[in-house]
Specification:
Layout lengths: L4 E5 L8 E4 L4 E2 L10 E3 L3 E3 L6 E3 H7 L4 E4 L3 H11 L5 E4 L7 H12 L5 E4 L12 E6 L13 H13 L10 E4 L7 H8 L2 H14 L18 H22 L15
Parallel strand pairs: 1-9, 1-10, 8-9, 10-11
Antiparallel strand pairs: 2-3, 2-7, 4-5, 5-6
Helix pairs in contact: 4-5, 5-6
Length: about 260
């Protein structure tokens, strides 16, 4: 109604990030790795980690038509917006939409020229956009990324939320940011809402100190890969024994060896 602009961040590309097999009672995973397959609008089931893809129709036929599409990605969000706001000019920027770099330049140019009403996309729209008429930023499912098995996940989510918040109100027009999340009491969400980096730093540095994460230590990750899981396990077990022997021989009391454990992906 104000004829101003909106930026909506959903940091998940594709249409439906989860394919649930009612027959097998589980999420369908990539046959090459342990990542969940994602449904894309072009009728493909895609793995975002290794690039594997197959026809969704054939996959669904193999599962006796018992696949349920779950969750929402940027493609699904774009569909919803086009239905909800049929007169609005809506564009989407994510890895799928910007395989041609000219499209990226064109869309950003239109946003700055006030020729787009709503821009949605993944983290690529979180920084660098200086559009004076963007007065509302919305973040959908802001807790995406907090559950990743990586000690830097909190830092990355905080950074993403604060960066995208900075897209609103960059001129004399007042900006507003709405963060949607299933875990509103999470410290990272709270710190990002208050835009308080010092508070976030004090919290995060204590967590890292207590758990002995960087900058209080240095991490070295050793990863073995094989087409045969047993061979990979044998290799990493051998490395672990060698490390233990050498560390004990050199009396390196400040070296801790964790694992071995299966890779999260």
């Amino acid at each position: 109604d104000k004829k101003e602009q909106v930026v909506l961040l959903l940091n998940r590309r594709g249409h439906s990030p989860l394919l649930f097999s009612k027959t097998e009672k589980k999420m369908l995973e990539c046959p090459n790795c342990s990542t969940n397959l994602c449904y894309h609008n072009k009728g493909k089931a895609v793995c975002h980690l290794c690039g594997y893809n197959e026809s969704y129709a054939k996959l669904n036929e193999r599962m006796n038509g018992e696949i349920e599409l779950m969750g929402a990605g940027t493609q699904k969000l774009e569909e919803y917006l086009l239905e909800k706001f049929p007169t609005a000019i809506i564009e989407r920027l994510d890895q799928d939409a910007t395989k041609n770099k000219e499209i990226l330049t064109d869309v950003i140019g239109k946003l700055i020229a006030h020729k787009i009403d709503i821009l949605t996309g993944t983290q690529m729209i979180a920084k660098g956009l200086d559009a004076s008429h963007v007065t509302l930023v919305g973040v959908i499912n802001a807790n995406t990324g907090l559950g990743l098995p990586d000690f830097r996940s909190s830092e990355r989510v905080y950074s993403l939320l604060t960066q995208v918040s900075g897209r609103a109100g960059r001129s004399e027009l007042k900006g507003e940011v709405i963060i949607e999340t299933s875990n509103s009491t999470h410290p990272v969400i709270q710190f990002a809402t208050r835009q308080n980096y010092d508070e976030f730093f004090e919290h995060e540095i204590l967590v890292r100190r207590d758990l002995l994460y960087p900058p209080f230590c240095r991490l070295i990750r050793l990863l073995t890969r094989s087409k045969l899981e047993t061979k990979s396990a044998e290799s990493i077990d051998y490395i672990k024994k060698e490390l233990d022997l050498r560390i004990a021989k050199a009396d390196l009391k400040d070296v801790i060896v964790l694992g071995p454990a299966p890779a999260p992906f």
